[in-house]
Amino acid sequence: MDASSRAWTAGRLAVAGFWWLTAAYACVASSTFASLQFLQPRVFPWIGTFSDWHVAASWLCLGLAGVVAWPDLRRRDVAGCITLGLLILLAAAALWNSAWPVLPTLAGGTRPLVVALVAFAVTIGFAVVDHLAVRRGGPSGPPSGPPSGPSAPRDDESRLLVVAAATALLVTALYAVFASATMAGAFEPDLLTGGLLTGLAWSLIDHLWIGCAAFLALAVIARLAWRRPGLHYLAVFVTLAAALALAFSRLAGSALGMHGVAAASVAAAFATSVVGTWAGLRLRWLARADALGSSPLDLFFGAPRPARSPLRSAVALLATIGLAIAGAAIARLADWDFVLLKSGIVAVWATAFGVVHRMTTRRVRVPLWAVALVCVAPLAAQQTLHAGADQRRVLERYEIYNPSFRLAHGLLHDVAATPSFDRFLRANTSVDAALRPAQLDFVPSLAPSAQAQKPLIFVFVVDSLRPDYLGS
């Protein structure tokens, strides 16, 4: 099987997907509450099916990994040695999993997080092989270092600004239509024409603020490192990984009660795994197409194709819309603290950025005053506009129907640090899987009382001290 072919890429994604699902199961099992209330009772049967067949699936994954790793296994360099080590690790993991099944025994504590780290490490190892194979040359392409564009950063900044602003406009319009379609037939007196326009305006400002922040970060990196291709690529890689790790920590980590060094390690491993796999597969494809001279952003999001037919661009936009609809539909089936819904929105943002990035030509030029205006306007609006009581009520209703605005508005306005008492509760109130139920008999032998005047007895049950529960 030729490395970087479509069949090879599908095989690599299948291997990575198996280990990502394993890590996701382990992360959920790290929460004793989620393990006892959802995993073990099999509230969702397909999750139990994955656990039951995980042993057999690990052997299938080992066989598929051997097939896709065969081109690299024949190499006589560091990439070949790492590939051999990965296959030995996978074989040992399959043997261990057959003798002592891992997933059914995960229930709270740090052991599930260790399993998640090992699962992410496998995909990171394959990503390292991708980078080494392309860097040193070989069957998949000519020798080349990490890509970087030949033009000065000023030429790319105009295009990057247009991409960032157009992505914000596209996402705002997409989810505005989504909100209008979702609330059709609902009784919402606060979301009449004025309320919808208010929500749309705030949504546009928030999305533009995030888009301009992404533009400024990437533009600064390009200005500082554009003469050193390796440093430029590494800086973009670290930036994307840091953003994804922060998203994982804010969404999944917070909902599952993950904290401390172990949680930070899992978030970093997840982000490195996803970004590394993404970059590695793109490097393989670019090496095969002899296009390794592209810039780092072209590597991650695709190079512009001015000759691309309008039909292909329309298909890409429809695919983005389909992703948004599918994410919302999946979140309706099973979600916790909007984790799946917000994760789907992050995927839509990244996909929309890639679609616009490929549709935007390098010939676009934006004057410096326009760059400053586009960047300053959302920031000034954020600092000067303050929603009153009526507007806050309207925005809270609009967030229900516009999940992208919910995420963007929460990132920009709900950023208060977690109080020390909340951090103490998270670190010390998790239920231990080995905990035995306490004896709740208030009296040795309960019987009707002979007293005529019965005392008043009050029983207070504190279900949770989470801020959102207390606030409700």
Question: What labels would you give this structure?
Answer:
mainly alpha; 472 residues; globular; 71% helix; 18 helices
Describe the protein.
With 472 residues, the chain is mainly α. Residues 138-151 have low confidence and may be disordered. The chain is 71% helix and 0% strand. It has helices at 6-29, 32-39, 45-52, 54-73, 78-99, 111-136, 153-182, 193-225, 229-255, 260-288, 296-301, 310-333, 339-359, 368-384, 389-401, 403-413, 420-428, 467-471. Helix 6 (111-136) runs parallel beside helix 10 and helix 9 packs antiparallel against helix 13 (339-359). It contains 18 helices and no strands.
Give the SSE map.
Layout: H1 6-29, H2 32-39, H3 45-52, H4 54-73, H5 78-99, H6 111-136, H7 153-182, H8 193-225, H9 229-255, H10 260-288, H11 296-301, H12 310-333, H13 339-359, H14 368-384, H15 389-401, H16 403-413, H17 420-428, H18 467-471
Helix pairs in contact: 1-4, 1-6, 4-5, 5-6, 6-10, 7-8, 7-13, 8-9, 8-14, 8-15, 8-16, 9-10, 9-13, 12-13, 15-16
